[in-house]
Amino acid sequence: MDYGQRNVYIFTFLSFFSAFSLFFSTFNFQLSTFYYLCAVILSSHPTMRFSMTPATYDLASEAVDLLKRLIATPRTSRDEGAAADLFARFIEEKGFQVHREANNLWTIADGYDSARPTLLLNAHLDTVRPVSGWMRDPFVPVVEGDRLYGLGANDDGASLVSLFAAFRVLARRPQAYNLVFLASAEEEVSGRDGVARAMAQLPPIDVALVGEPTGMQPAIAEKGLMVLDVTAKGRAGHAARDEGVNAIYLALPDIEWFRTFRFPKVSDLLGPVRMSVTVINAGTQHNVVPDRCTFTVDVRSNECYTNQELFDIITSSVSSEVAARSFRLGSSHIDISHPLVARALSLGPTVDGQPRAPFGSPTLSDQALMPWPSMKMGPGQSARSHTADEFIRLPEIQTAIDDYIQMLDGLTFSSRFYQKRA
Ligand SMILES: [Zn+2]
Description:
Elements lengths: L2 H22 L4 H16 L1 H6 L2 H18 L9 H13 L5 E3 L2 E5 L9 E7 L17 E3 L2 E3 L3 H19 L6 E7 L10 H5 L7 E4 L8 E4 L1 E10 L3 E2 L8 H14 L13 E9 L5 E2 L2 E10 L5 H9 L5 E4 L7 E2 L5 H8 L12 E3 L12 E3 L14 E3 H15 L14
Parallel strand pairs: 3-6, 3-7, 7-17, 8-16
Antiparallel strand pairs: 1-2, 2-6, 4-5, 5-18, 8-15, 9-13, 9-14, 10-12, 11-13
């Protein structure tokens, strides 16, 4: 029995009681109205609906149980094999067919029809390595109060198990879209064997919901990343004879440019593009004028620019040689008018009592590698990720499942209508 049916039962029972009391209390309208109101409130109020719903409760407890088993299965990036095995078994036990490419797993809801648009639900399986400072064993799931502690409990285990719980419900109900669930690997290292490898085998996707800890707030833009290796080339010489061309001095005006230049287009959601010189190397010994000075620049893009556009502006402004390690990790964005965003904003307050508000996220996720529009939203808090004694609050998982179902059940959106900025 799912919770939609459960509500129908509550409503029917209390409505019947209402009519019954009307009849037997010689038409006592007050009492009858009272029962009728109870029927309406109990069957429609979202929080009441949650606490009254054994099906969602079972889903949540199974999700938490799965998360505990995942925590106990070390799954750092590029080493997710055992966790992928475990999760694949769980998906099969729940009656879905699993596809696997490296350590990426996906499943497609029955009734796939290429004429309909497709929604992808995605969260990542891998974790970073535990930082020093854990007071607990990061691989032993421990519940204290309403908190579940363990490595990857927040990033990204809670989103992973909550999205799959929602998938189980949504896949059993008729929807106007195709539904795909993907657990991706190597997210924390943006690895080649992660989401990019799975994407090549997925059916065409129109929009994605990426579960990452955002306190169940919809992130509708995400910063991109480009790392630059910059080299100023001079000519070596003896320091005592004022020979050569000092590469450090050549690099200085370029470093100053990176420090002070402001890209003109500023995003409402993500602010300006930020550039930071983070590593510098030059010189071998005190009496040799260095012929090379290399430095690294970390560039965090907003959705107003592609990485290629930023690169072109940079290379035309500095005299040093510039090489980008990759253009893969672009900024991502979804139109605020997309029905997926609208549905998210129509949910009631979060479990922390916050009203839903779209925002721009400074952290990178698999969204960077997705060519289609995507929204990021999941249980937990970004500030808890990659920290010692990482935890998720159990009510965060329970309400996330409920939110995801409410948000996605009956959703309609157009096929490939909203394109990502070229
Ligand atoms: Zn994450």
